[in-house]
Design a protein that fits this description.
4 helices; 135 residues; mainly alpha
Length: 135
């Protein structure tokens, strides 16, 4: 039996079934796309320390020369302090002052990052999430 031999009523029902099937397939595809997007966002949301470790790993080629440079500077400063003991107090005070300055800047940066992550800070380039609609 061909479709042309079907009565008009059966043909209309077949079209509705076809549309329902296509609609269900579209809904399934949209649901899968939504779930994939949510999963992607869920994986991207990591803690700040984990993100910093990831950045350190990604930038290890740039960090390694800095570590070598730090070791060379340390060895030079140590040699200067051994040869000129009168400069040791000045050198150590300068190193401590620089360390405290860097530590304060890092603390301020981490505080701002935490406020941004928690949504407590509003800037011109980072907008607060939209408010929930009121019923």
């Amino acid at each position: 039996m061909t479709t042309s031999a079907l009565p008009a009523k059966d043909f209309v029902l077949a079209e509705k079934d076809k549309e329902k099937f296509i609609l269900s397939q579209n809904i399934a595809a949209l649901t899968a796309a939504r779930n994939a997007t949510l999963e992607q966002y869920g994986q991207a949301a990591t803690s700040i320390p984990a993100a910093l470790v990831d950045l350190k790993w990604q930038n290890r080629r740039e960090i390694y020369p800095l570590l070598i440079k730090e070791e060379v500077y340390g060895a030079v400063l140590n040699e200067i302090m051994l040869r000129h003991p009168q400069l040791k107090a000045k050198i150590m005070a300068r190193i401590e002052a620089n360390y405290q300055h860097i530590k304060a800047r890092e603390n301020a940066t981490l505080t701002l990052m935490r406020q941004l992550a928690d949504g407590e800070l509003k800037t011109s380039c980072v907008l607060a999430p939209p408010a929930a609609p009121q019923p």
